[in-house]
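seq as requested:
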Amino acid sequence: QVQLVESGGGLVQAGGSLRLSCAASGIILSINNMGWYRQAPGKERELVAAISSSGTTSYADSVKGRFTISRENAKNTVYLWMNRLKPEDTAVYLCRSITTGYWGQGTQVTVSS
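struct tokens:
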């Protein structure tokens, strides 16, 4: 059974930082293309960062230079480091195995102005 469990969300002031974690079981993240998505109320879900099985990363323009996606193979975990957060970053953040289509349940990030 595949499980992706996100953690690390919370309430932070604008300009602050958070680190989100996506811990996996039943799937080996190092051989999967992984992505962090977000969905804000009334908006479509969007891909904000991705990391390929080879380690290549990509980012949405809105987060480029502020967010960093990384993977720790020994812990079978993918991270999203979020810096210089803005109120418009407020959303539920979800982890997904792009390769297999599995989703995590999401973690709420709220950025106050």
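The first strand starts at residue 3 and ends at 7.
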